[in-house]
Amino acid sequence: MADDVAAAGGRYVEAPVSGSRGPAIEGTLVGMLAGEPDALAHVEPVVGAMCAQTFRCGDIPRALTMKLAVNTYLITMVTGLAETIHFAERAGADTGVLREVLAAGPMASAVSRGKAQKLADGDLSAQAAIVDVLKNARLAEDAARAVGSAHPLITASRRLYEEAVDAGWGELDMIGVIEALAARAVG
Q1: pTM value?
Q2: What is the CA 115 to chain-centroid distance, rounded?
Q3: Please, which residues have CB within 8 angstroms of residue 57's CB and are 6 or more apart in sequence?
């Protein structure tokens, strides 16, 4: 696309963002930009108005590469959180205390606190729907494969999100992948 835009006399900038509906509403998205420096300078004020922070990632397609790396972390982190809470529930641990421990410790983040609270509230309305997360997991997995990067966690996550979509849970928030874990449960 960048080549087509340049051939038509335009300037192309990649500008994917990290964040879902909540951060978009709050204006706390994180922008990742790639392109020619003068084109980036031109669009930064516009993108900056929608984002809490923006980062220059280099030439195209480095912003997309960054977005896929960020999504790999996000997807595997939320999948791990779902597995953690599912295990705790099955083992009889107090998940309220678990949420407090996780929120107080070094692994705490807005995402982990928010997703754990969604489960506690029984609110699986989508901020990032499982079906959309599955698309991102596939893109990240394909990109990792293309550059020869090991990718066992995103592959395992992708498979779990596929199971969730196949079971009809695709419109749930990504933390709803816990339903696929529950369906796998034995004993």
Answers
A1: 0.93
A2: 12
A3: 14, 32, 33, 34, 63, 65, 66
Q: Which amino acid is at 23?
A: P
> Nearest 5°: phi and psi at 134?
-60, -45
Q: For 15-38, how does the pLDDT look when each residue is reduced to its tens digit (9 = 90+)?
A: 999 987 778 888 899 999 999 999
- How many CB atoms sit inside 10 A of residue 32's CB? 24
Beta strands 13-14 and 17-18 are: unpaired
Give residue for tokens 């982190």: 77
Bridge-based pairing of strands 29-35 and 13-14 is: antiparallel
Half-sphere exposure of 152 (CA within 13 A, CB side): 0
Secondary structure of the chain in the HEC alphabet?
A: CHHHHHHCCCCCEECCEECCHHHHHHCCEEEEEEECHHHHHHHHHHHHCCEEEEEECCCCCHHHHHHHHHHHHHHHHHHHHHHHHHHHHHHCCCHHHHHHHHHHCCCCCHHHHHHHHHHHHCCCCCCCEHHHHHHHHHHHHHHHHHHCCCCHHHHHHHHHHHHHHHCCCCCCEHHHHHHHHHHHCCC
Residue 56 bridge partners (DSSP): 33
